[in-house]
Amino acid sequence: SQQGEEDPQALSIQEGENATMNCSYKTSINNLQWYRQNSGRGLVHLILIRSNEREKHSGRLRVTLDTSKKSSSLLITASRAADTASYFCATATMDSSYKLIFGSGTRLLVRP
Amino acid sequence: EADIYQTPRYLVIGTGKKITLECSQTMGHDKMYWYQQDPGMELHLIHYSYGVNSTEKGDLSSESTVSRIRTEHFPLTLESARPSHTSQYLCASREDWDTEAFFGQGTRLTVV
Predict the structure, then answer these.
(1) Do A100 and B45 touch (CB under 8 A)?
(2) pLDDT of residue A1
(3) Going along chain A, which residue ranges are E strands?
(4) E strand or H helix at A9, and its extent?
(5) What is the distance between the alpha carbons of residues A104 and A68, in angstroms, rounded to a whole number?
(6) A82, A92 contact by CB (below 8 A)
(7) Smallest CA–CA separation between A99 and chain B, in Å?
(8) pLDDT of B93 over the 60 cut
(9) Of residues B41, B45, B90, nearest to A99 (C-beta)
(10) Distance (Å, whole) CA A66 – CA A57
């Protein structure tokens, strides 16, 4: 079974609005990463947050991690039409850190 | 720009054929991964490798096999393709457990 579940499955917002995506996972992790995928192509890494970190920023991206709830969120501020893509969280678990397990993804549509 | 390459990008083959999907990276990464992804759906880990001569099966049962004879090369082979193998196959690599993964552009396989 997949390690991560993402919520919502799909999100449609207006350009300029903020987009928030959530990821929940099942087992203890070493780190959690967020990736973006355009039109079914290869994934591009966005940000990595370690299990001892609570929040990270990168440009318009803000990621939080709550290990007690086994959840993470990705916030994209001031969204643009070019942010339209699928967003996935991925975890490296403590039992086998070399595995990288992806969640089910959130499909984001930013309307111009 | 990620230095990880997959060939071919698209492949249409007949049932029963043997095929090999190629994946090469020039970054010297030890950890490499194969994922299977249906359009718009989640990524499933089917194989991964810690380094040369080490390969492991992922979480999704797959009839494919892999080899890792050289650090830079991680080919995936289907001995006898079936229509159920129709999917996109994504290859990825990373330096270590706490680093980002780089993805190839994928191979879209159709078995007729």
Answers:
(1) yes
(2) 44
(3) 4-7, 10-14, 19-25, 29-37, 43-50, 55-58, 61-66, 71-76, 85-93, 101-102, 106-111
(4) none
(5) 21
(6) no
(7) 7
(8) yes
(9) B45
(10) 15
What backbone torsions phi and psi does residue B14 show, to the nearest 5 degrees? -90, 155
Q: Is the pLDDT of residue B70 over 80?
A: yes
Angle in degrees, CA B52, B104, A82, rounded to 5: 150
pLDDT at B2: 63
Report the amino acid identity of residue A52: N
Q: Which of the residues B6, B90, B100, B109 would you substitute to probe the A interface, choosing the one with the greatest number of A C-beta atoms within 10 Å? A: B100
Contacts of B104 in chain A (CB under 8 A): 42
Using the predicted structure, report yes or no on whether residue B110 has a pLDDT greater than 70: yes
Please state, rounded to an integer, the average pLDDT across all residues of chain B: 93
Positions in chain A whose pLDDT score sits under 50:
1
A86 interaction partners in chain B (CB closer than 8 Å): 40
More confident residue, A6 or B100: B100
